[in-house]
Amino acid sequence: LYQYLQLRDHPEKTIIPHTYLFAGKAAASYGEAKETIRLINVVANLVNSAPRVSKLMKVVFLENYDVSLAQLIMPATDVSEQISTAGKEASGTGNMKFMMNGAITLGTLDGANVEIHREVGDDNCVIFGLRAEEVMAYYHNGNYSSWSMYTGDPDIHRLMDDLVNLKLGGEHFGMLYDSFLDRNDEYFVLKDFKPCCAAQEEIERRYKDQKGWRKSSAINIAHSGYFSTDRTIRQYAEDIWHIKPVGLKK
Predict the structure, then answer these.
(1) Looking at 24-125, which runs of residues are DSSP E strands?
(2) What whole-number distance in Å separates Cα of residue 21 and Cα of residue 204?
(3) pTM score, two decimals?
(4) CA-CA-CA-CA torsion sign (104, 108, 114, 119)
(5) Which of 51, 45, 55, 46 is nearest to 19 (CA)?
């Protein structure tokens, strides 16, 4: 939404053409997740129907995400965005599969992103946002204020207001607005917003260097072997189960 507004309001601005693919499912009782999916589709309609903006970006929400769909998406992806709040362990095997197919990870230091970052280093992935210990410190100290983020940053102020002022195709997203501001943004989305924007700019800068991008892609593929089943089971056996392999005699 932020990028759409930037491109719409600043005709001189340009970017490398992007296609944003969103996929996922919401549990029947998870209202905020359903509202998020609705917001994605509303923004997709705004972006894809804007003549100039749609030449530079597309937004697509893929319904009924499953393995069959993943088999098509993952080999075609350049950037794997894994942006769960650090410490929530929301990112799982999906980011590993993107890595195995040569996508560059753009994400928070959470879940398997931690190991991907350790394997390929800062030169071959882009990490942004709060670290897990910073998130826990906010929870412990209670000194995070989403309202301060809202009043102190004009971009965040505008985005939050757009959720409720009917400028998004006449749609109202009061549930999400309340989650961010009235319930103090439990997942620190507003705190990570500007670092995420900077990470998007960095990943675009790297993509312009196609030779360097292909090298990073190859490094990610090569290091994805760390996530092999053999290594994982062996580590579980040694560190958690404390069992030894049994040799088979012919």
Answers:
(1) 57-62, 79-82, 104-107
(2) 16
(3) 0.91
(4) positive
(5) 55
Interatomic CA distance for residues 206 and 225, integer angstroms: 24
List of the chain residues with pLDDT < 70:
90-91
| Residue with tokens 């009917």, as numbered in its chain | 166
Place of tokens 């992103």: 113
- Say which amino acid occupies 215: K
Q: Which two tokens stand for residue 43?
A: 């923004």
Query: d(Cα 56, Cα 7) in Å, to the nearest integer?
Result: 9
Residue bearing tokens 């439990």: 186
pLDDT tens digits along 218-249: 999 999 999 999 998 999 999 999 999 888 88
Retrieve residue 128's tokens: 């942004």
DSSP conformation class of 127: E
Please say whether the beta carbons of 166 and 172 come within 8 A. yes
The two tokens of residue 190 are 């507003």
